[in-house]
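Why predict the complex rather than its parts? Because the way molecules touch one another can change local conformation, and only a joint prediction can capture that. The input here totals 680 residues.
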Amino acid sequence: MVTIKDVAKHAGVALSTASYALSGSDKVSPKTRELVLQAAKELNYQKNGFAMDLKRKSTKTILLILSDLSGPYYSELIRGTQEVTLSNGFDLIACSSVGGADSTAYKFLQERRVDGAIVLDPNISEHLLRESAREGCPIVVMDRYVEGDFIMNVAADNVQGGYEATRYLMEQGHRDIAWIGGPSNSLGSQHRKEGYLKALQEEGIANTKWMLVGNFTEEGGYHSTKVLLMQEERPTAIFYGNDEMAIGGYKALREFGLSVPEDVSIVGFDDIQVAEYLSPPLTTVRQPKYEMGTMAAHLVFQAMGGEYVNKSYKLKIELIERLSCQPPRLAPNRGKGMET
Amino acid sequence: MVTIKDVAKHAGVALSTASYALSGSDKVSPKTRELVLQAAKELNYQKNGFAMDLKRKSTKTILLILSDLSGPYYSELIRGTQEVTLSNGFDLIACSSVGGADSTAYKFLQERRVDGAIVLDPNISEHLLRESAREGCPIVVMDRYVEGDFIMNVAADNVQGGYEATRYLMEQGHRDIAWIGGPSNSLGSQHRKEGYLKALQEEGIANTKWMLVGNFTEEGGYHSTKVLLMQEERPTAIFYGNDEMAIGGYKALREFGLSVPEDVSIVGFDDIQVAEYLSPPLTTVRQPKYEMGTMAAHLVFQAMGGEYVNKSYKLKIELIERLSCQPPRLAPNRGKGMET
DNA sequence: GAAATTTATCGAAACGTTTCGATTTGTTTT
DNA sequence: AAAACAAATCGAAACGTTTCGATAAATTTC
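Output of the joint prediction:
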């Protein structure tokens, strides 16, 4: 392995001079710089980043931790963080928590390999977050709430989202609105449900019949919907904790011979890419993902720069009207139990 | 910042002993180990990963470079690489090339910050790849072909894919089959086109009228399709270089009052998530993305271990039949120019 | 043309680890 | 109880950089 020492020797200068030359300092004369660069090229010298970081005590990279590197959900968010990160002259790397909750994240957070982090991943323990956040490595946590020094929170206003979606259905005349939520470790899902309940309450509706949990996956939505439809009475609308579950819902409804939105109106949450292409196109609640991403990144840099920032930010959410809802039939659509 | 030195002092042992204790060596007695661990906890000691890597000369992480961290395309692929990487006890991080072709990728490859890399990104220059690949950092390049020491290639058999898709259309009776390809820097797209041409040639069809390029985006597909439809004669089928362009194609066709598959049959490429939900569901060519991911990762580890591996691998591809194709009408469907 | 000043180069220390070989301590063998 | 051995601890050197302060060389000033 060729080091800067070799380069220096080959160029016939001192190690320190070689270092100056390679990092483009103006302390070195043009002609020796040339000499060194030439030597570096000839030896195919590659700088060792660690040694550099070790001296410099900063890495100029920030880490994005996602629960699943691959989900369709994250696209916009990543784009947002990326743009801000780059424009600050930093690099962005991403990792996920698959395979042992804290593993990779642990390595990068705890071993001080990054200068900041953005975490959208319920699997990362609060303990790790609190231990790792410090001056020189602020952390922004998304879609959950973690208190601690150098820890900030960014989330969509899920309560509002849940509330608006439910109100929207109620304004169309629905009163029997089911909720199929996400896993219980998702604060986002809990908040959406809160909004949902709040809207119902305002109208004096006390629904306890139609509240189920799924797991944010298509299968989960499918099964929960089936369970729902097997009951004696059926809702005229279903509000899903996310779009993927709504997709599963579509499937289940079709199997029961019910059509959307004639028999049942549907609202999802997230506005993933597919939502627009379903038939009927899915009415859903769009989170400002891009904005959340840029916001998170900005916060990291502000905190890094020692600026005072609030601990917690909530971003507004928007209802996307498509074709999966319509007013309910006048006579409530009562099921008669299992039909298949 | 508290270092191992502080821990050692606090525990009343030598620095080296502290190091042994912290890394769980059995050279140290249980009771001093306890002592050291205790001290570390009290001081909230966090190990410095760089210093460690610098000594150890390995990072135990491999890098995945994607052109766009966010595309829906990558999900399965990432999952594949991730599984293999983790099961080898390594960590996987991802970065993209957005914002200055080589920046982040450059930093990690060139500065020896990883022990291996998997690259699916046409923006990364061959030069960088060849310079960075070395013993101790093998690189697998996907969907293109790069020659060099410690560089291996994995790709789907795009020629085969293009060929089969085209044959499929021909077997249904189509003879006027258009091609709307991806950007010219995509080797994959080129190969698909090759397969397409080969299939046509076998039947003695010499199409030059209906070959356009898009840019792998929905808009690109939309515009190219419009251009296609404005021509005097119209194809009875269109083969798109990827699914996203096919989606744009659906839109354009609808605007022209043409329906899929009655008026025009459509085949896409990639089988992204949406494909299944379009109406009609899109017939497309599925790349074995998961397999490509695991393959790539395995290759990295084999090369790392000094095993001999082939330089290049091609994986078979599969046609997914859905409802966007049917035999053409008997009288070829001749357009009369622009109709709207 | 010598003194003062600037510019270019150098040597050495530091960054925080790991790890080798040497030393000390504790245990067993005779 | 001394000799032989094993186990535990220690000191110091490395890893490849950056950077400070010191020296040497080149330039300016009087």
